[in-house]
Amino acid sequence: xxxxxxxPDFFAEVVIGLADTDGGExxxxxxxxxxxxEKDHKLCHILWxx
Length: 50
Fold this sequence. Notes:
The protein is mostly beta strands. It has a 3-stranded antiparallel β-sheet with strand order 1-2-3, with no helix packed on it. The radius of gyration is 13 Å and the shape is elongated. The two termini are 17 Å apart. This is DsDNA-mimic protein. It holds the Pfam family DUF440.
């Protein structure tokens, strides 16, 4: 599943990771989570770092 091809009005992406500085770019990603914005659709897809 490519996150780039999904409708941003329907889905949100959450990135969990670490940055070198406070407010800096995340450079060590632990997981990427895809959440559905519609409360009637219970979709959550997690891609964990291997």
